[in-house]
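Justification of computing resources. Each target in the renewal requires a structure prediction run like the one illustrated here; the chain below, 416 residues long, is used simply to show the kind of job we budget for.
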Amino acid sequence: MSNKLNVVELFAGVGGFRLGLETADADFFKTVWANQWEPSRKVQHAFDCYASHFEEGNRSNEDITTIPDTVFQKLNIDLLVGGFPCQDYSVARSLSGEKGLEGKKGVLFWEIKRVLENSHPKYVLLENVDRLLKSPSKQRGRDFAIMLATLRDLDYIVEWRVINAAEYGAAQKRRRVFIFAYKSTLDYAENQLNFHLDEIVFNKGFFAKAFPVKEEPYQNRRSTVKLPLDMLEISDEFSFNFYSAGCMRSGKVFTTQTQVLNEENIPLKDILVDETTIDESFYLTEAVAEKFAYLRGPKRIKRTSSEGHDYFFSEGGMSPTDDINGPGRTMLTSEGSVNRSTHIVEVEGRKRFLTPVECERLNGFPDNWTEGMPNRMRYFCMGNALVVGLISKMGKQIKKIELEEQEEISQLKFNI
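Resulting structure tokens:
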């Protein structure tokens, strides 16, 4: 029996998933195929970065929608991973009416579904922005319910958790929802049947083992629901408040808002580079400092709507510089530009931007991981990336599950 997992990585970016898994155990996780393609870009900076760091396995720089099903049928995938865009997941009947459902075109989650349908991996690990749980605003929870129902129909049991990286040892307050799914035919799944859904979420499940939480939810926020069997009914009518953690088994959902057990983070000052090595271009000029003072200050601006109504746009003030004694704020793709969300640190009496290397450190990448592309793209790629250390923790838990799975199979063969 193979003592490793074949991994396929979709929407790979600069390789955060793969780096995290290989940090957990490079011999155990073998990425056999990865896809990264940025539409409307002549230079594929993220793919080039990925390819420069990872030589093993096939690396695809093509539109995922153009890759035929047969590619995935031949890959022997054990674990599918990927961070995908948060989009509108509404569905509709096909024109013939009896050929099932069609997802909205251009939604990349349907490509994940297509890969799963053609490869049936044992495990799936996905990442998205946490607003996925509440989208769309006019029918809260619909999109996530469609995802859960899709995985249910493909015979997966699903756990999810919104994780703030700064609560589990990182230097950045980055909140993302992670989704772990596993086939209901696994011995692991059968063992998990011994536990109620709330037990899985609080202490017996995948995320509870890797990221411990308190036994009680925040303000007793917990809820249950049964997903409709008809996907079109979910798309048209379903609305539900999914909390930050939960589990779905055979369409039955338990969800709650968990609380971190022992919060630990890295202060921003610990990831700053030696000040003597920083190029002068990263320091704020007087004019740029004045722009940031305005952008980060409180505002109440009179505006006129497209219908001609006057209203006031209000925005609260924030600190002129970021507190280097605590973790950084969430890094966005606009990091490094003159933007309210950009980090500004003051060191030795001078205000400056974070350098690309410091942004890499915020996400747990090795120094100069994105070196070779323009600084604007280095910031952009890190704003899109995930925190590597979180994936490493998840990788260790997946390895433990799989080794126990292999042991169960070995014992069964031995008894026969």
